[in-house]
Amino acid sequence: MPPRTDTRERILDAAECLVLEGGFSAMSIEKIMEAVQITKGGFFYHFKSKDDLARALVERYGERDTSLVQSMFERADTLSDDPLERMLIFLKLYEESTDKLYLASPGCLFASFSYEIREFSDDIGKFIREGFLAWRQLTLSRLEEIARQYPPTVETDLPELADMFMCTVEGGLLMSRTLGQEDILPRQVAHYRRYLRMIFRP
Amino acid sequence: MPPRTDTRERILDAAECLVLEGGFSAMSIEKIMEAVQITKGGFFYHFKSKDDLARALVERYGERDTSLVQSMFERADTLSDDPLERMLIFLKLYEESTDKLYLASPGCLFASFSYEIREFSDDIGKFIREGFLAWRQLTLSRLEEIARQYPPTVETDLPELADMFMCTVEGGLLMSRTLGQEDILPRQVAHYRRYLRMIFRP
DNA sequence: GAAAGATAACCGACCGGTTGGTATAGTAAT
DNA sequence: ATTACTATACCAACCGGTCGGTTATCTTTC
User: Average of pLDDT values for B166-187?
Assistant: First the structure.
């Protein structure tokens, strides 16, 4: 059998899936070996430890997630010039994408890791925190742009509103996962969208 | 030394704390033994397996949580006759209580278990799901009462609005935990409160 | 009221299995 | 020669769980 070149990625795929299913601690290296059909030597050729795998996992997830959100923001930007309209379009795109997103990975790796945070070295926790903060900042700068053009009538804390998007997505994902109702997340995003519209365009 | 009668509770306390810190899988019985200052025999006298402990843990958490929410609803009911006002008062009470709640246990045990759901026997997963559904129903019946008196101008799906409270709390808890900013959860509850007011009393 | 028995609460050595991780020799393609 | 593994053997640490005792306290019997 010729050696493949995508083994590292396949390990990460299987690991991500296993983490989302039962958590990081429950994911043994043997389960990965079985899923990817490699031996122990093969695994440790690519990752020097389980902690190393965890780091690679969050890094890949972080990159993919931000690039997805980024590209959706850019797509929304091509569809309107108005900052509020752009945000509303983005949220609509996000809402629609959650269907496929959910099937691909029904859960957030960052959230999953957050609940086992004591298991990892500090730098992984730091990476996750920074990932969330970057997400928050991305939303916040959009909201600030909106607020300049549409000053809200009621006093509104914009960072809180940025947090609200993260909370909506994370909360929605958890409830979708736990209750097995995949439409919860998109419906909650729709409510966030409506809330924004009510605030900025009463 | 006389045998104590509260060991079972002390085990549950320590276990709950450990689960919220690093997840259930990462919580070994030896860690509990150390925290409670008992031996292995002592632990297995009270719980016949780790799975048995998990069951006891979610049951106790479920009871405490629903009784807390229930009592807060009842307290709100004594402060107003208007169904909308009652809900808004309840949310204010909930918002204020999260300070102490957070210090006592910075996280939701149900959420933590949800991310490791494959680790447990099915009945535990079922119990968690039913717990969430009961919570949803509790909120929903209140919202229905409000909607009868204050028909919303924009068409609003009430079950979704009930889900939104759960999502807000769970999302807020996760973000509070992960970012180490305990005010995120109460601020998000306040936004949910404002959204409800905007919907039912424009 | 003292001895005997029952019981609840707990101790700690031990067991088999699993875990993350290492070592080493070999292979097949580039 | 380097890369990308396979195959097998192995290790120490840790894991959940068992089991035969032990201790303190309450209860019953004489």
Answer: 96
